[in-house]
Specification:
Layout: H1 5-17, E1 48-50, H2 72-78, H3 81-97, E2 102-107, H4 127-142, E3 147-153, E4 166-168, H5 171-178, H6 180-188, E5 193-196, E6 200-201, E7 204-205, H7 210-219, E8 225-228, H8 236-242, H9 257-264, H10 270-287, H11 304-318, E9 320-324, E10 338-342, H12 368-376, E11 381-385, E12 394-395, E13 410-415, E14 426-432, E15 436-440, E16 452-462, E17 466-474, E18 477-482, E19 485-490, H13 498-504, E20 508-514, E21 517-527, E22 532-541, H14 548-556, E23 560-566, H15 585-597, E24 601-606, E25 621-624, H16 632-640, E26 673-675, H17 684-689, E27 707-720, E28 729-739, E29 745-755, E30 762-771, E31 776-782, E32 790-792, E33 797-799, E34 804-810, E35 818-823
Parallel strand pairs: 1-2, 2-3, 3-5, 4-6, 4-26, 5-8, 10-11, 10-23, 23-24, 24-25
Antiparallel strand pairs: 6-7, 9-25, 12-22, 13-14, 13-16, 15-22, 16-21, 17-20, 17-22, 18-19, 18-21, 27-28, 28-31, 29-30, 29-34, 32-33, 34-35
Helix pairs in contact: 2-11, 3-4, 3-11, 4-6, 7-8, 11-16, 12-16, 14-15
């Protein structure tokens, strides 16, 4: 990769003018994905790529592919730190192979509500579980010599007005809950970078929040780089003095040479610049991006086959069995002659939400339907019907579009703006396999900070006359034409919501009747200079008949029915929150209709959030599979047929109805402030105090055998309680687990605790144990030292409540389990 010469010149000029300011250029990014190099410090460019579900293309190019990993919530459902670390190693290996220095992940924010548009990236509603598993992911990535950038510090769990909103959080809640995962990660594995969130916290923007950054650097002794979210800085002096080390993306608008100028003007201490440069130099040392320093040796490089095996194991381990009436699972292919598979997600599964971090899958993709057919073999007839139509429009390439020359895809052209002669001057042209395009900075053929036009041309083959919905959108003035006739014009987005429109890939749509034959669709956009440009074209066939009828027909004649429902990509998305935790109404109608004609119905839910399941009491089996990565199909059949027993546990509480969600109905006020007090305590701690119980509690999950906790005993060995900030070390719980079923299995024992005087229990430890059929085994759970602390706002410090503590060994948050008492 070449270095932007203008940046190097700036660095030279700074060094010549004042050697004490050398390296200031490091604090500003070079472009959308790289940091700036510095001759004086020997630091080379470092590539930062978005994650954490896989590596994103620098240029948002669908031809740049990588493996899609299980989502954060799926990984949390494994409750398996070692397995999560393996997934981290896998993405770290992919980063090394692509010359990437830092992966932007994991997301250590908490899904305070299932309505948050970005819950799929997050791990768990519990700060301890999130911290432990997030740290394991970081450990895996960094073992490969690649940095992890944990994000987003902090309280960044709502997408509505995320760049301007203010999270109002009490000090104790902020420290004990929302900062806790980041603290755990810093203490245990030390991510090489931390990313500050867009939002404000208690009135101050996170990237310019000296108290927050002070907690990281001073209280936790964090020695890594503190970076802004992309375009998340709006003040040089405020960000520099608060402790921000790096502004992204580049070219820098506030840091970089502006940082040096502020030091020269006496507005920022010189020591602050030295701190930032030292941290960026340390990152270069750690990632092998400093002159004369070799790349760190990777811990483990997996073959393609080993990578696939890891993804299968991780996906299967994340599946949570919520119902299994009459032990309908695992399915026995010998006893089944006909299987009906229904649901759109069986052929078009959802692997990720709609974000800038959309991953283009690498290699073979086996759908659940194909995997089921393969697993059951030719002796079993597998029938399929979608049962519903997509609720959102599709990319033109997904419905078989071709470029004008007949090549599959669309023709993408970049043109100059119209001249007086109105002659099109094509500056860039190629056939692409997508119909949504994003450019941060330079636009092909034009460059950055220049006006221009983009045109997408596609030919659609219409089999029979039908009604279609066509849509278009982008960052400029967009027009949509069909067979040369302009039918829609879309105005540009409001300046303060451009990034949101890009993240949401927003379109305006129009419905029209299209004749049989070939139809030409042209979407064109005139754009003005901007930090990002985007254009999107979509289409959807309006079905003349209800596909539910056909699905019910095959379900009625099958020995077993597997219904695969869930989200579509984009139904959970960055920069937009949900209105309800429910699935699309068509999913609920499909399940109800199928159950009415066949009681042997198994429902698989492909959504990476807590969802409403009004039909849960009617189905024989219910399997929550989240966004499980691109080996979804093979992992699913392994569990359905019993080759792998489900062992996942819920990392979030599932409400029965929307009204049971903590903080339901509470939104931003007129000052764009969200008062967290209305939803605290959230998650399972809310349900401990609420009148209504959750439909499925945090930590819940079944398997193909039966476990019982027999006894539990607390042990205090070498208990240390010297520094309140470090909690209490040396407390453990030993639990005897009995397997009374007919097969071996993995049981997860959870420990919840509270001091005298507190109302609710909090997760303080967990451990898994393998138990043979008919046998008992002992699980030893180390109680987390930091979970004994409570933040005392009156003195702005940690305290450990003395006296009696109750520690409860349980199978989930709602299980009374076995109570132990200790005194501190």
């Amino acid at each position: 990769m070449t270095t932007d010469s203008s940046m190097s010149i700036d660095g030279d000029q700074i060094a010549k003018t004042d050697p004490d300011l050398a390296g200031a250029e490091l604090t500003g990014g070079l472009n959308g994905w790289s940091t700036t190099a510095s001759k004086e410090t020997g630091v080379e460019e470092m590539v930062l790529l978005d994650g954490p579900l896989g590596l994103v293309s620098k240029a948002m190019d669908e031809r740049d592919t990588s493996l899609i990993m299980p989502s954060g919530t799926a990984l949390a459902a494994t409750w398996d730190p070692e397995l999560v670390s393996e997934v981290g190693q896998l993405i770290g290996q992919q980063a090394r192979e692509r010359d990437v220095s830092v992966v932007l992940g994991p997301n250590l924010n908490l899904p305070r509500s299932p309505l948050s548009g970005r819950t799929f990236e997050m791990f768990s509603e519990d700060p301890f579980l999130t911290g432990v598993l997030g740290a394991s992911w970081i450990k895996g990535v960094q073992s490969q010599g690649v940095g992890s950038c944990a994000k987003h510090v902090v309280a960044n769990d709502t997408e509505t007005e995320r760049r301007r909103m203010n999270s109002q959080v009490e000090p104790a809640t902020l420290r004990e809950t929302y900062l806790r995962p980041f603290e755990t990660a810093v203490r245990s594995t030390n991510p090489w970078m931390l990313l500050m969130a867009y939002n404000r916290v208690n009135g101050k923007h996170c990237a310019q929040h000296s108290e927050l950054i002070g907690i990281l650097k001073n209280d936790w002794n964090y020695d890594g780089v503190v970076v802004s979210d992309w375009f998340g800085v709006d003040d040089t002096v405020g960000a520099a003095n608060a402790g921000l080390d790096l502004e992204m993306p580049g070219p820098a608008r506030y840091l970089g040479v502006h940082f040096a100028d502020a030091v020269t003007a006496g507005e920022v201490p010189e020591a602050r610049l030295h701190d930032a440069v030292e941290r960026l130099t340390r990152l270069a040392d750690r990632t092998g991006r400093r002159s004369g320093r070799p790349l760190p040796a990777p811990a483990l490089l997996r073959t393609s086959e080993e990578q696939r095996d890891t993804l299968i194991r991780a996906a299967a381990a994340s599946f949570v069995l919520l119902e299994n009436r009459d032990n309908v699972l695992p399915l026995d292919p010998v006893r089944i002659k006909t299987v009906a598979v229904v649901g759109l997600n069986a052929v078009k599964p959802c692997f990720q939400g709609g974000t800038f971090a959309t991953v283009r899958p690498e290699g073979e993709m086996v759908t659940p339907l194909d995997a089921i057919r393969e697993a059951f073999g030719p002796e079993v007839e597998v029938l399929f019907e979608p049962g519903a139509t997509p609720s959102s429009a599709q990319a033109l390439t997904d419905i078989g579009s071709t470029a004008p020359d007949g090549t599959p895809g669309v023709l993408l052209e970049v043109l100059s703006q119209p001249s007086d002669e109105a002659v099109d001057e094509v500056l860039y042209s190629e056939v692409r396999q997508a119909s949504s395009f994003v450019w941060f900075g330079p636009v092909p053929g034009i460059g950055a900070d220049a006006p221009g036009r983009v045109r997408v041309t596609a030919h659609l083959q219409i089999d029979a006359p039908a009604r279609w919905a066509l849509g278009a959108g982008g960052t400029g003035v967009v027009s949509l034409a069909v067979d040369g006739r302009r039918i829609l014009e879309v105005p540009p987005p409001a300046p303060d919501d451009v990034m949101g429109v890009v993240a949401r890939a927003e379109t305006q749509q129009i419905t029209l009747d299209l004749p049989a034959g070939e139809v030409e669709v042209v979407v064109e956009m005139d754009f003005q200079p901007g930090r990002v440009q985007a254009i999107t074209a979509v289409a959807a066939l309006q079905q003349p008949s209800d596909p539910l009828t056909a699905a019910v027909a095959i379900a009625a004649c099958a020995d077993a029915v597997i219904v695969v429902v869930g989200d579509e990509q984009g139904s959970s998305r960055e920069s937009a929150d949900r209105k309800t935790a429910a699935l699309d109404p068509a999913c609920d109608r499909l399940v109800d209709a199928v159950v009415a004609v066949n009681t042997e119905t198994i429902v698989v839910v492909n959504a990476s959030r807590a969802v409403l399941m009004p039909w849960a009491d009617k189905v024989k089996a219910l399997l929550m599979v989240w966004f499980p990565g691109q080996e979804f199909g093979r992992a699913l059949t392994s569990v359905l047929t019993g080759n792998i027993a489900p062992s996942g546990r819920l990392p979030v509480s599932f409400p029965t109805r929307d009204e049971d969600i903590p903080g339901w109905g509470h939104t931003l006020d007129e000052r764009l402030t969200l008062d967290y007090a209305a939803s605290e305590p959230m998650g399972y701690r809310y349900f401990q105090e609420a009148v209504r119980a959750p439909r499925y509690p945090f930590g819940y999950g079944m398997t193909y055998t039966k476990f019982t906790l027999v006894e539990a005993q607390a042990a205090l060995q070498g208990v240390q309680r010297s520094a309140p900030a470090d909690g209490v070390e040396g407390v453990s719980i030993e639990v005897t687990v009995r397997n009374s079923g007919a097969s071996a299995g993995r049981e997860l024992v959870q420990v919840y605790g509270k001091p005298a005087g507190e109302a609710g229990f909090r997760l303080m430890g967990f451990a898994a144990v393998q138990v043979a059929a008919g046998a008992t085994a002992k699980a030893s759970i180390a109680v987390d030292p930091l979970s004994f602390r409570r933040w005392n706002a009156a003195v702005s410090d940690w305290r450990v409540p003395s006296g009696e503590w109750e520690l409860r060994a349980s199978r989930n948050a709602a299980d009374e389990g076995i109570l132990c008492r200790i005194s501190l």
